[in-house]
Amino acid sequence: MEKSATIRREQAVHINAKNAMNVARDLIGVPFKDYGRDSKSGLDCWGLAIEFFSRLGLQLEDPVSMYDSDWHKKFNLIGMNQHLYFDRAEVPIPFSVVAMQIQSNVVNHLAICLDLQYVLNTDKTVGVHMIRRFAIRPFIRYYLKPRNLVVHA
What does the pLDDT read at residue 7? Predict the structure, then answer.
């Protein structure tokens, strides 16, 4: 699928929910790869967010490239950059980002909320997959709604 042009942060991006679910399904099975940014060779969690939102027309920057391999132990990189694209939400919203803290002192993992029950996640054992939000609830710290994303049924 061809990448869209970069959308300025203040521009609204209108998406169809059915199309977004098709994008999610298309990514299932992509292998996990540390610092992965290519759906052919593998994606890590931020790579998954970049790829998912890019296919919907919202370009995210890749701040991970600025940090060393231990960034996830030292920085809440997701929180540091959330102000660029996201508004914080206390409840899950379809196509929001789920910020998680897994075996770390900082938020160090994310997934994409597909609906109220399922998230699109990636991990080292199975790559990109759908999982029930209930299964990851202990790790969830907050949700981030893409500021410029307008979802239509």
Answer: 42
Other Cβ atoms less than 10 A from the Cβ of 22: the count is 12
**Which of 149, 128, 148, 131 shows the shortest CA–CA distance to 140?**
131
Q: Per-residue pLDDT tens for 72-93?
A: 555 555 555 555 678 888 899 9
Percentages helix, strand, coil for the chain (3-state, rounded to 5) are 30, 30, 40
Q: CA nearest 144: which of 121, 110, 118, 116? A: 110
From 126, 124, 129, 91, select the one nearest 111 (Cα to Cα): 129
Give the integer Cα–Cα distance in Å for 2 and 6: 12
CA dist., res. 87 & res. 10, Å (int) = 13
Whether residue 4 has pLDDT greater than 70: no
What predicted TM-score, i.e. pTM, was given to this entire model?
0.84
* Alpha carbons 74 and 136: distance in angstroms, whole number: 22
What is the SS3 assignment for 36? coil
Average pLDDT of every residue of the chain: 84
What phi and psi values does residue 116 have, to the nearest 5 degrees? -75, -10
Sign of CA dihedral 77, 93, 102, 122: negative
